């Protein structure tokens, strides 16, 4: 059989090349641009590589001075992110806490100062951090002494021993001033409680509160009232109020007369109450 008997094998026909539609071309161009953007560095990273740590930090300070706090925090965060081992990273971290403090954002500032204090216990400006941390606690506490003063107590604890820990600090004067205010606020709360018991003529409770107050708050302006309440509490318990009156003479002589009058009234009322109680007991015995 000859080869001519078999028909020639032809290649399969190629599919026709259709022209791309306009939407398809645009989609391809968009994909290429997206790939190019993904391959290039991010704008923030590129900006961070162009500026040094100091330049980025200074830029944040300029934003802060203008009151553009959001932009300032962005710059400080860039310093912390891209220059972690640079000394300006610590300054940027502290600057963020300072911005929260300037904006009166006490909770954010408190957390930022506490984190900084734990992470960098040997920072050169640690006295500023301790001072600011106490101030955030002081401002967060209610000014009315009758309310919960837990934040005030924390502020006092934060500032206790500041002058010994940071001798010669530029913030020592402010710390002492606000520390005394915080201590007086706590002391006044004790006086308010003592007044509450005094109105109910609870002599032992008043004595306990005022005695503790006099031991703890030696410089409080409420000491004359505490001594008066203590003298009255002694009179209601058949105790000698003379010790409290003598201390009042040394503390505030102008209040001695009023205190003595309050003692006489309390003593007379207590005597009447005792007499009535005795008569009631006698009647019960007779019955």
List the helices and strands and how they pair.
Blueprint: H1 22-39, H2 43-50, H3 53-65, H4 69-82, H5 87-102, H6 106-119, H7 126-140, H8 150-159, H9 162-165, H10 172-199, H11 203-216, H12 223-236, H13 242-251, H14 256-286
Helix pairs in contact: 3-4, 3-5, 4-5, 5-6, 6-7, 7-8, 7-10, 8-10, 10-11, 10-12, 11-12, 12-13, 12-14
Which percent bin holds the helix content? over 70%
Uncertain segments are 39-48
Radius of gyration: 39 Å
Number of strands: 0
Q: Largest beta sheet, briefly?
A: none
Give, in order, the helices and strands.
Answer: HHHHHHHHHHHHHH
N-to-C terminal Cα separation, in Å? 152 Å
- Total discrete domains: 3
Helical stretch count? 14
Give your account of this protein's structure.
- The chain is 73% helix and 0% strand.
- The protein is an all-alpha fold and 287 residues long.
- Helix 5 runs antiparallel to helix 6 (106-119), helix 10 (172-199) packs antiparallel against helix 11 and helix 12 (223-236) runs antiparallel to helix 13.
In short:
The protein has 287 residues and is an all-alpha fold.
Descriptors:
73% helix, 287 residues, Serine Threonine Protein Phosphatase 5, Tetratricopeptide repeat, mainly alpha, 3 domains, single chain
